[in-house]
């Protein structure tokens, strides 16, 4: 187990250093793509539809992927593998609007530089939009993106009726330096490579 952990940490460090140096602060769209591509999970916030919490914000952790690991693998589209049995997915069935936050705090980058997760230099991205099921033509792409990073997903119980979904991005905020949030449009975001 320790060998596998070391291998994962080494792979993450290589990913952050091999041809994929962190973008400079003036390239906010590239930073957004970079952070998403280097993160394997994010905090998804929904508006709760649960009794006693109805209408309240509710954040939950979800595995995600925008493509296979490596500097050329990212599409920028956050894909998720979901089931209607999950409490946040039940919220999304009532209101598909959500926000998704990803942070370099989950990679070795911030620890290496001794950045606290709340330090702006430990970049994090906030996406707003909605969750939508992918159509049949996009399902293969979503499956490859997710299963390449989360191979355990293939063995999850079939009777849970898993489905592929994506985060349909409408707004993007980048916090990667001092001075406040930067706004990136989806058009800017998708036009650059991480």
From TrEMBL:
<dbReference type="GO" id="GO:0005615">
    <property type="term" value="C:extracellular space"/>
</dbReference>
<dbReference type="Pfam" id="PF13883">
    <property type="entry name" value="CREG_beta-barrel"/>
</dbReference>
<keyword id="KW-0325">Glycoprotein</keyword>
<dbReference type="InterPro" id="IPR014631">
    <property type="entry name" value="CREG"/>
</dbReference>
<feature type="domain" description="CREG-like beta-barrel">
    <location>
        <begin position="23"/>
        <end position="191"/>
    </location>
</feature>
<comment type="similarity">
    <text>Belongs to the CREG family.</text>
</comment>
<keyword id="KW-0964">Secreted</keyword>
<dbReference type="InterPro" id="IPR055343">
    <property type="entry name" value="CREG_beta-barrel"/>
</dbReference>
<feature type="signal peptide">
    <location>
        <begin position="1"/>
        <end position="21"/>
    </location>
</feature>
<dbReference type="InterPro" id="IPR012349">
    <property type="entry name" value="Split_barrel_FMN-bd"/>
</dbReference>
<keyword id="KW-0732">Signal</keyword>
<dbReference type="GO" id="GO:0005737">
    <property type="term" value="C:cytoplasm"/>
</dbReference>
<protein>
    <submittedName>
        <fullName>CREG1 protein</fullName>
    </submittedName>
</protein>
<dbReference type="GO" id="GO:0012505">
    <property type="term" value="C:endomembrane system"/>
</dbReference>
């Amino acid at each position: 187990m320790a060998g596998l952990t070391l291998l994962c940490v080494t792979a993450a460090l290589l990913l952050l250093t091999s041809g994929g140096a962190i973008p400079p602060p003036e390239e906010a769209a590239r930073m957004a793509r970079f952070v998403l591509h280097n993160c394997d999970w994010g905090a998804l916030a929904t508006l709760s539809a649960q009794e006693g919490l109805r209408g309240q914000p509710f954040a939950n952790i979800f595995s995600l992927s925008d493509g296979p690991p490596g500097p050329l693998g990212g599409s920028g589209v956050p894909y998720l593998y979901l089931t209607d049995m999950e409490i946040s997915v039940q919220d999304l069935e009532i209101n598909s609007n959500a926000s998704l936050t990803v942070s370099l705090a989950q990679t070795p980058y911030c620890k290496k530089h001794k950045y606290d997760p709340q330090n702006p230099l430990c970049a994090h991205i906030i996406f707003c939009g909605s969750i939508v099921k992918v159509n049949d033509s996009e399902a293969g792409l979503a499956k490859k993106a997710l299963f390449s990073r989360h191979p355990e997903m293939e063995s999850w119980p079939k009777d849970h009726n898993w489905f592929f979904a994506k985060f349909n991005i409408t707004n993007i905020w980048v916090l990667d330096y001092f001075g406040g949030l930067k706004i990136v449009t989806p058009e800017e975001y998708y036009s650059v490579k991480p």
